[in-house]
Amino acid sequence: MNNSVVSVKQIGKTFYGKKSKEKKVIQNVSLEVGKREIIGIMGPSGCGKTTLAKIIAGIETPTDGELEIFGQDCRKRFPKDIKKKIGFVYQDNNLLPWRTVENNLRFPLEVFGMKNEEENKKRIEEALEIVGLSAYRTCLPQELSGGMMQRVNIARAMVFNPELLIMDQPFGALDAITRKKLRFDFLRIFEQSQKSIVIVTNSIDEALLFSNRIYVMSGGPGTIENVVTVDVPFEERTTEVATNERFTALRKQMIKIVKQQYGEEV
To answer: Hey, where are the domains in the chain?
Structure first.
């Protein structure tokens, strides 16, 4: 892929415990993420989805295989300039309860030693505007709803204006109604941002709604067993998408894959 942002080739990850015990989490995983692509990663619990996401983000180091991010070899060393191009959204928002919304967004800028206050203020304002929380900048996390806290979580990841956004089950901790609403809100945000995005999810509907392409992993140690291209135009991915014939066909295909591979009821 000529415009590749992420290139993962035959990646594996083994964790080593006490008494030389080892646990292979993922093996022989290969995938590509292009510019302005949204890639979904699905699979059963324990298949290594989160580990794979953390490897792409530079949080974990692969045991073997090849990893290129923005054309640079990042298998053994993740350059700081590459890390600044990546935003990571955890499933739990992990907001600092003693800091306001604004100061939670300021925290990663402080960690990276970005001391230009005028520039930092601009970054924070832009990130809050993207997620629609400019009016809540002085609130503490406990004064917000669960959905709003997750918006802050995503804004914090976007405060660097990253070229690559990695999201680990970002809506998994929310109730069904809030989750459904945020899906469509953020689909529009993702379209406008024109970023490359990797989203880990356990939801077929979520994967189909967001993704250009879905990588489906096997049970642990996880590897890629299916790749599904979602060829529904984004302008048709609205609240009425469930009635879209192509979307319905893809959903049936995904359900069949899940049932065949994992024996799960969806």
So the answer is: 1-85+166-266, 93-161
- With respect to CATH, is domain 1-85+166-266 assigned 3.40.50.300? yes
Environment class of residue 80 by beta-carbon count within 10 Å: exposed (0-12), middle (13-18) or buried (19+)?
A: exposed
pTM of the model: 0.88
**Residue 145 zone, left/alpha/beta (φ > 0; ψ -120 to 50; rest):** beta
**Residue burial 81-115, b: 16+ Cβ < 10 Å; e: rest:** ebbebbbbbbbebebeeeebbbebbbebbeeeebe
Over the stretch 16-59, which tens digit does the pLDDT of each residue have?
877 667 889 999 999 999 999 999 999 888 899 999 999 999 99
Element (H, E) at 204: helix 204-210
For 64, list phi and psi in degrees, rounded to 5. Answer: -150, 175
Task: Using alpha carbons, list the distances in angstroms from residue 80 to 90, 101, 116, 232.
Answer: 20, 26, 18, 36
Does the pLDDT of residue 262 top 70, yes or no? no
**How far is CA 153 from its chain centroid?**
12
